[in-house]
Amino acid sequence: MIKDKNSIKKVVLAYSGGLDTSIIIPWLKENYNNCEVVCVSGNVGQGTELDGLEEKAIKTGASKLYIEDLTDEFVDDYVIPTMKAGAKYEEYLLGTSFARPVIGKRIAEIALKEGADAICHGCTGKGNDQVRFELAIKSVAPDMKIIAPWREWSIKSREEEIEYAEAHNIPLKINRETNYSKDKNLWHLSHEGLDLEDPGSEPQYEKEGFLELGVSPIQAPDTPTYITIEFDKGTPIAFNGMKMSSKEIIYALNKVGGENGIGLLDIVENRLVGMKSRGVYETPGGEILYYAHDYLETITLDKMTMHEKAKLSITFGELVYNGQWFTPLREALSAFVDKTQEAVTGLVKLKLYKGNIIKAGVWSPNSLYSEEIATFSEDHVYNQADSEGFINLFGLPIQVAAMLKKNK
């Protein structure tokens, strides 16, 4: 908490136009000596959520609004490197997690440009995002003061936030009955709160309006959809034979995946701040992309590299989840991943059917799979008699230990 509030003349606010940040503008002016509020919205693929934001921000008391298109940077520098690492956090594909560093970094850059005295965000004191935003800010502007209203104000719930908004005539797109806490970008959509706070409550997948990126597997078509994805050194470069950017491929996979009920995750996760939290995630394109990439790696990575990469992917996922993107370890792991991806080039064919992703073929010029060696038919490459010497050497420690035990 900032003690000398009168020293704050200009604040840059991470602004989404949602409930939290909508009420923060008047709250800042009321509690920080009528300071100037400059809003920044990072476009990471929220779509129509950005419509009308400038008018709303200024009417609510902001002096200006920056809307920064970060979609290409988000995909190329954060999403794809994380996907190539195979990084997840407890099955969660990190949709909110890796969007925060790119947004926080840009907000800090604008705050320095604007000569701001502080940066403000609307993250709750119970959530992970406060850590992610503030670590990103520290990496760019280490001396910048940070204002976190949820750690200061007397408001205790989203219901009280709505009351504050209504008292200040702030227009909201939500109401008390449909007030899920959501986060949307081009990679995913998350749902938290209301009935989802009870882990015994089944998500209302079939209820109209609940899912936004797709449909329930029950409502998906009765016929499968075949797709192909081409990779070059681990990066997706084509969808169904058409060359596209990684961002365009994600949008295309979101569409076809959503139509086939792919990418739903209902999870009780272990938050960074110590509590368990239940959420429902929609990540149709992301689930397909991870699956296809893993499929291609099965024929292009050697055993030891694949196994070591799998172990390190857990650490990578934890770093992303914990907001530690701008760290030496994450950079070192990315360098390792890039080396492993040099041979991950090829084509993957998948069948999508009612929430399922089914393998339908994989090809690579760098394939390590040899049908001649692996075949159960007669071959002229592998001498099966050689396995006897291998087993004798491989089992020698077990044999020695057994002999010692026998002679005691």
What does this structure look like?
The protein has helices at residues 19-31, 53-60, 71-84, 99-114, 129-140, 158-167, 246-259, 284-300, 303-321, 328-340, 371-374, 386-394, 396-407; strands spanning 10-14, 36-43, 64-69, 118-120, 145-147, 181-184, 189-192, 225-232, 235-239, 242-243, 264-270, 276-282, 346-353, 356-363. It has 13 helices and 14 strands. With 408 residues, the protein is of the alpha/beta class. The mean pLDDT is 94. A five-stranded parallel sheet has the order 3-2-1-4-5, with helices on both faces. The protein has a five-stranded antiparallel sheet with strand order 10-9-8-13-14, with helices on one face. Strands 6-7-12-11 form a four-stranded antiparallel sheet, with no helix packed on it. Helices cover 39% and strands 19% of the residues. The chain is elongated and about 85 Å long.
Radius of gyration: 25 Å
Biggest sheet: strands side by side, in what order?
3-2-1-4-5
Report the sheet-strand fraction: 15-25%
Biggest beta sheet attributes? 5 strands, parallel
The computed structural class is alpha/beta
- Helix residue percentage: 25-40%
How far do the termini sit from each other? Answer: 69 Å
Mean pLDDT: 94
Give a count of the beta strands, DSSP E runs of length 2 or more.
14
The global form is elongated
Q: Which parts are unreliable, with pLDDT below 50 for 5 consecutive residues or more? A: none
The helix tally amounts to 13
SSE pattern: EHEHEHHEHEHEEEEEHEEHHHEEHHH
